[in-house]
Amino acid sequence: MGLTEWFEFQVPGRVVCSEHSVDSIGTELDKIGANNVLIITDKGVEKAGLVELVENGLESGSAKLSGIFNEVPPNSEIKVVQRCYEMVQSVGADSLVSIGGGSSIDTAKATAILMCEGGNLLDHQSAVYAPSGTLPPHIAVPTTAGTGSESTFASVIADEEQKLKLIFQGPALAPTVALLDPVMTKTLPPHLTASTGMDALSHCIESIHSEMHEPISDGLALHAIRLISNYLPKATKNGDDMEARTYMLIAANMGGIAFANAYVGIVHAMAHAAGGRYGVPHGVANAILLPYGVEYNVKFYPELVLSEYRLVAEALGIDVQGDNDEKASEKLIEYLKNLTLDLGLPAKLSEVGVPQDGLEDVANDAMIDGSMFNNPGEPELEDVLDILKKAY
Ligand SMILES: [Fe+2]
Asked: Ligand 1 centre from 106 Cα, in Å?
């Protein structure tokens, strides 16, 4: 197994996990010095009654609810963050609780930047965000088991004018507490449970084949893969299976911490591009592209990935005893294709609104996506186009 010559592993904030842990969110807010809390969420989460659960949980502590910002869209934007910050100022909030998928949590992270720095978000973009002071207390409550954003160091915010996705990145952006409560994911419908779970699996596998992988992130990712293999089909089939919901939240969190350090690769580069161009949901794009990204890496960089893919296959419970590494990775690719189908997800880009004559644009966008740089080797444009054609 290859090892980067030097590595640094950043640990995010505290992780608290139990069924009904939101009931005691007030106690957690007291521990981190929150007084006036702004909840950041979206209307769907609010309508599902999940914000109310958190509001009730606030009564376990002394922090007051200052307001609810419920305008987060599926992909958050600069102007949304600015509006959220205006609300922080108008209600006098000193702390944040984000409830939702990656978009709400990322909106809160970016709002936290403005609470520390003031002004316009665009003024605070740099390779690594170094705060000029202390960021406000922030508890992230995920309502999907996928992005791991509750424990990552990045916030992805679209710049609607430049038509770009901006990434704000830095260890200070990790929420103070990640509150994992399976009650908050219980009502997630099967197709979203499946696609967000495949995003989590993609984080794990991509952090393992990343050029930045190291033993700590590998360990987190491999155990998360074991959990996903066991619990994603169960959580998809029966949303009320609280054991499956809990372990999927934990797995997504572990995958998030793994890729926050080791990063992701070619699969996410293509998924970001397919999402940006044609609105393919992130988890669906990853589910479709993951086996083809693995196949590409096996073909071009076997010396860098084969032994890792064997470990991934074993973690997924695939019987590879007696197989050489090539055979083990063939079985892995087949398994990933079947898993996508078994979960009821689309298996080809042609099924999700990507036009055939749009593949070249997707390939071009993927080539300049930041995730591409952490994939093994140096994928060429023609290779990426070839992968997209195979996945079409
Ligand atoms: Fe992802």
From this structure: 13
- CA 186-230-106 angle, to 5 degrees, is 50
- pLDDT tens-digit series, residues 235-255: 999 999 999 999 999 999 999
Q: How far is the CA of 253 from the centre of ligand 1 (A)?
A: 12
Same domain, residue pair 256 and 351: yes
Last residue of a domain, one of 160, 184, 208: 184
Predicted pLDDT of residue 235: 98
Residue 4 lies in a domain: no
Domain of 102, CATH number, reads 3.40.50.1970
- The rounded distance, in Å, linking the Cα atoms of 175 and 34 is 13
The verdict on residue 270 lying in a domain is: yes
User: Which residue is associated with the tokens 């990640």?
Assistant: 178
Cβ neighbours around 175 below 10 Å, total:
29
Q: Are 40 and 76 in contact (CB under 8 A)?
A: no
Residues 167, 196, single domain; the answer is no
pLDDT, tens digit (0-9, with 9 covering 90-100), for 118-142? 999 999 988 799 999 999 999 999 9
Q: Residue 172 is encoded by which pair of tokens?
A: 């200070």
285 Cα to the center of ligand 1, angstroms: 9
Residues 127 and 206 in one domain: no
Residue 267 Cα, ligand 1 centroid: separation in angstroms? 9
Distance from the CA of 64 to the center of ligand 1, in angstroms?
A: 34
Q: Are residues 257 and 379 in the same domain?
A: yes
Distance, in Å, from the CA atom of 158 to the CA atom of 164, rounded to the nearest integer, reads 6
Domain limits at 132? 14-184
CA–centroid distance, 346 to ligand 1, in Å, is 17
Please tell me whether residues 271 and 135 are part of one structural domain: no
